[in-house]
Write a structure and sequence with these properties.
Two copies of one chain form a homodimer. Chain A has nine helices and 13 strands. Chain A is globular. Chain A starts with a strand and ends with a strand. Chain A is about 35% helix and about 25% strand. Chain A is an alpha+beta fold. In chain A, the strands form two sheets. Chain A has an eight-stranded mixed beta sheet. In chain A, strands 8-9-10-11 form a four-stranded antiparallel beta sheet. Chain A has one domain: 4-Layer Sandwich (Glutamine Phosphoribosylpyrophosphate, subunit 1, domain 1). In chain A, helix 1 packs antiparallel against helix 2, helix 2 packs antiparallel against helix 3 and helix 8 crosses helix 9.
Chain lengths: ~300, ~300
Amino acid sequence: MNKIAIAIHGGAGTILKKYITPEQEEAYKKGLKHALDVGYAALEQNKTAVESVELSIIEMENSPLFNAGKGSVFTNKGTHEMDASIMDGKTLYAGAIALVHNIKNPISLARQIMEKSEHVMLAGEGAIEFAEKMKCKFEQDSYFYDEFRYQQWLEVKGSDKVQLDHAVNKNKKIGTIGAVALDALGNLAAGTSTGGVTNKKIGRIGDSPLIGSGTYANNSTCAISCTGTGEFFMRGVVAYDISCLMEYKGMSLEDACHEVVNNKLLKLGGDGGLVGVDGNGNIAISFNTEGMYRAYKQFKKPGVIAIYKEN
Amino acid sequence: MNKIAIAIHGGAGTILKKYITPEQEEAYKKGLKHALDVGYAALEQNKTAVESVELSIIEMENSPLFNAGKGSVFTNKGTHEMDASIMDGKTLYAGAIALVHNIKNPISLARQIMEKSEHVMLAGEGAIEFAEKMKCKFEQDSYFYDEFRYQQWLEVKGSDKVQLDHAVNKNKKIGTIGAVALDALGNLAAGTSTGGVTNKKIGRIGDSPLIGSGTYANNSTCAISCTGTGEFFMRGVVAYDISCLMEYKGMSLEDACHEVVNNKLLKLGGDGGLVGVDGNGNIAISFNTEGMYRAYKQFKKPGVIAIYKEN
């Protein structure tokens, strides 16, 4: 067994202990641990990094706790629009979807695009058509309905205000989920999935489905999944920037992540974070916000699950 | 007057002299020259690089010769879906649209998103709604109708075949247009606009509207606009890769473009090209195909207009 490793996130933002009840904290930690365990078990069974990333993300998409899949927030029209992407660090193949609705697991659809189409990215009705052809699992609107998120939307409905979740002083479900993994064969993969931001303009695409911005994987450097104010991650081409700092400047994964998240991204005005893993199984967790839902596990080491800045 | 410079492209691909009549060649050269002159004149009048890039692209979008705006190709449903993006190298602000229809000048809508919204990217009906709010110019379907492109579509309609234009041995209008510029204040900008590929799946998004893939600008390095098989430019994060090779490895613009287009992109299997300009007014024109519609002009030097590999 080679050095296997996995890291996941469930969003970064203004996550402060005072806004979260012990019960909520427990629920989030349980949700993270479950997603981590499922992905890590897959790696132990010699499944690929792509498979492991997909499995971990599916668990979070199926949970109402996280803003992706089932837990997606409402757009300004009261609808759901989900984005996701996945990349295989061995082949540099990638798949992404944007602005889809009623798809149970957007990350699986992104993987189907990567593996079964000649495209990298499909959006809207074109993506839905492809999902039907691939026999992806659909769910009714009621599956995605969540009273808490609905109330959250009613608060800002009709205004131009978006709720980034992680930018408000309330305990709210956070922006994006993602996973990165190194499998037993030394291959890397990264995936990201999101339900957007509350009351977002329909048609807005953030960094999550963009290869190089929200997601990137390359066996020769690292696998990265981001979360935060998407527009800044797009302008900074954040995920690929970390890979370039490693490849062209010889930086370590940790130094590259720190430089991008705590220096370059802050200068642009962006807040958020990311998880990363390199080919040696090193893991980096970086965020410039008060907290980030996160968990990771490296071969033969105990798993780590954390929420706030200090844990 | 500082060193001003502009470079534009009208697509790269299998462009061979034997497939193009002297009249067609003349028309393309005239179209390129006109777009170049308009952009260069703007720079001479101390307009910004962003303005100049937009003006050059508008000229090409308004021409039926190029696959963008008026000349956009048909999707697999017989509709038009246009994508565009623009980036300001001074501020790193960016704007992009995907999958829009009936917008006369997609590049101007991308600029409006950059300057008048909190978003970077809007797609589909959400982008159209924003365009209405901004009072962007719309055109009827008939404006975008072109007998030649319609026949081109009929040939592959009903099949899964896409016509990349640049991959077939016929004289066909080519994939994407773009421009990069350096203005008198030393600011860089890049923009790209496309009508997609003939018979493409609706909802397919290529590299043209993606910041870092098809378009990137940063005063500290370069401005880049790409054209070619979009999926490979997305997986290679091509435009930002050139910037990183310059910033992190100290490569010149020309060397970085050559490395990416003639080495890295070819290894991925991607064909196409790009135009680039740096802060000193150096221009790079790179393509790994038989030809690329292109033109450039540097301060106090004669303009250059070319189509085939050897000119």
